[in-house]
Amino acid sequence: MNKDLIQRMQELINFYVQDKEFMGTVLVAQDNDILVHQGYGFANIEWTVPNDTNTKFRLGSLTKQFTAAGILLLEERGLLKTDDYITQYLPDAPKAWSNIKLFHLLNHTHGIPNYTQLPEFRAITLCTKTPYEQIQLFIDKPLDFEPGTHYCYNNSGYVVLGFLIEQLTGQSYAHFIHDAIFAPLNMNDSGYDSFTEIIPYRASGYLKDPDAQITNAEYLDMSLPYAAGSLYSTTEDLLKWTQGLFNFKLVSANSVKKMTTSFMDHYGFGVEVKEIDGINVVMHIGGINGFHTALIYVPSTKTTIVVLSNLNTFGYVWDIGFIAQNIALKLLSVVHGIEVTLPSEKCSIKDTSETLEQYVGEYDIKLNLKLIITLNNGQLEAAFSNQPVITLHAQTEAIFYSILPDIRFQFLRNKAGHVVQVYLSQSGYELKGTKINDR
């Protein structure tokens, strides 16, 4: 690997570290060749314990790919089929679930409401709940849509999958994942997170609030994310995971193919399968109290990129795993020879206040979310509903960007020349806003 590319990777990581947007551990490897592996910031701020390559982080939704692999293992053992209806294993399931297959649970096309979005979930975040008790939160709720007709990312399906693993194996989910996945792959620094258990080298989770103050993250009982988000690991163990999975040490090539085949909206079984800048990747991100995570694997170059962070930054619009994902996607580009420009390196132009005034107004993004563009001392500023103000810099007459968070704003005009829409893009996600008034 070109030393300049490795240096460039370090520069882009340090950009986020220096602005206190990221602390954690990063690993970039091509096959067995480790290009970058380093900790940044603190695993524990109060004791000034630094993050290093041994630090253990909560994975959040990276957990889902281990749950999916567990289901595929059970299929290979003849205990289930992913095309089976879940009522075959849950005889007490409501009639509304009668058309839901394991397949639908694995790729978020089942229609069961997301339990972590239910009002009653907030009231139990301090409580320990069994998988069965968690399922009772949503078992009687009407489906959001008919199974197989839509994709909607969701935690409930993976809670049901974890429960099925326990019913079929007679083991707890935590013990099954350890025995069936972690132990065979020598992932000795991975496990199911627990408040009561002493876990050496475990990072504390932090939140950077809207006033840029770092605080301890809110407590969350780790029985609740369960098979959708309760595992912890290290960067090195996740390298063992991608190598083991894609070298078919855990499940067969056929099972890996099933896992990494996109069904709807680029989602397979516990992983996203998509093309980014012409590169086919298998990836996922995670966000859980105090932690952001991202894991990318490129089959064609055997590249693994792991970004694990123990600092949540205050969300902008759709922030789940954004800093980790932002860094991971930039590393993906650099390692494959694609030029990356950091926000601080972009050239800005000077627009007159008269020009900027055309963009001022209120934009309807989606239900209950508005974007307010204002002009302050000759500088455009943007604020989403109930979120901090961010400064916009003009890249062209119609395209603006913010440095942190790294968001691109593109304004569109109608045939009469009036500004009518704005497109926002961040870390591969896009939103459209329609101008509803000039304020």
From TrEMBL:
Transmembrane segments: none annotated. One of its GO terms (cellular component) is membrane. SUPFAM superfamilies: beta-lactamase/transpeptidase-like. Keywords: Membrane. It comes from the Bacteria. Residues 25-313 form the Beta-lactamase-related domain. It is found in: Membrane. PANTHER family: D-ALANYL-D-ALANINE-CARBOXYPEPTIDASE/ENDOPEPTIDASE AMPH (PTHR46825), PENICILLIN-BINDING PROTEIN 4 (PTHR46825:SF11). This is Beta-lactamase. It comes from Legionella drancourtii LLAP12.
